[in-house]
């Protein structure tokens, strides 16, 4: 008898949860569930494909050797050699003019990322690229940068 009561309560809770989600956050439910509940399925948004420019230039940031700290001591160095891909003309000049600010933002962000031990962190290059691209766009504005390219990324242990 206890099992039947528990099952009835679980089914009621699950049904109430689905009902609540369907009323207040229908985007979280798969379209099939919305159809079963008799609700309108929202149209899928078309993802705009951003066209790459036919001609680009690379701004070379000299290799950055960033110390990674562990327990208050330098544990190893992260070496990043990054190229910033931009369209020629004013965008190229803008990125060259703000190169020092961009490097400073990269150093600050990588230090914060490694000290906070955020996952996936500096070992995931796709995550790191996305975050550094966002930092670059904060400085030079959106639509200026075409891409970030990593030429070399490696960790070097502390010698000594």
Describe, in short, the structure shown.
The protein has about 160 residues and is of the alpha+beta class.
Overall description:
There is one protein chain. This protein folds into 2 domains: 2-36; 57-157, Tetrahydropterin Synthase, Chain A (2-Layer Sandwich). The longest helix is centred in the first third of the chain and has 23 residues, at 2-24. It starts with a helix and ends with a strand. Strand 2 and strand 3 form a beta hairpin. It is built from 5 helices and 4 strands. It has 160 residues and is α+β, with helices and mostly antiparallel strands. Strands 1, 2, 3 and 4 form a 4-stranded antiparallel sheet that branches. The protein has helices at 2-24, 31-36, 90-97, 99-116, 125-140, and strands spanning 57-60, 64-70, 73-86, 145-157. This is Flagellar protein FliL.
């Amino acid at each position: 008898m206890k099992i039947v009561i528990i099952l009835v309560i679980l089914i009621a809770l699950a049904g109430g949860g689905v009902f609540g989600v369907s009323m207040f956050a229908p985007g979280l439910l798969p379209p099939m569930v919305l159809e079963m509940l008799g609700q309108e399925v929202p149209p899928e948004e078309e993802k705009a494909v951003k066209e790459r420019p036919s001609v680009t230039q690379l701004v070379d940031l000299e290799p950055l050797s960033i110390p990674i700290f562990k327990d208050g001591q330098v544990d190893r160095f992260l070496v990043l050699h990054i190229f910033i891909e931009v369209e020629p003309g004013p965008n190229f000049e803008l990125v060259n003019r703000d190169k020092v600010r961009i490097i400073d933002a990269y150093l600050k962000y990588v230090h914060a990322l490694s000290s906070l031990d955020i996952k996936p962190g500096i070992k995931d290059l796709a995550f790191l690229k996305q975050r550094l691209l966002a930092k670059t766009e904060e400085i030079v504005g959106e639509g200026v940068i075409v891409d970030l390219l990593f030429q070399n990324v490696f960790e070097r242990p502390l010698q000594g």
